[in-house]
Q: What sequence folds into this?
């Protein structure tokens, strides 16, 4: 990524409001996924798995 793109991304993250892990799992289930889980979490980064 270019320096400009990286800088823009950093600026956007300053105003992001992260949803909780629990909220995101509920949203996946409400969207029709039978299985929804968090496979990995570190600080404010998470990897989700969902299956319809």
A:
């Amino acid at each position: 990524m270019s320096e400009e793109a990286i800088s823009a991304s950093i600026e956007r993250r300053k105003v992001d409001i992260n949803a909780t892990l629990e909220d995101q799992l509920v949203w996946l289930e409400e969207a029709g996924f039978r299985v929804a889980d968090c496979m990995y979490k570190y600080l404010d980064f998470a990897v989700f798995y969902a299956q319809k």
Summary: Residues 3-13 form the longest helix (11 residues). The longest strand covers residues 35-42. The mean pLDDT is 93.
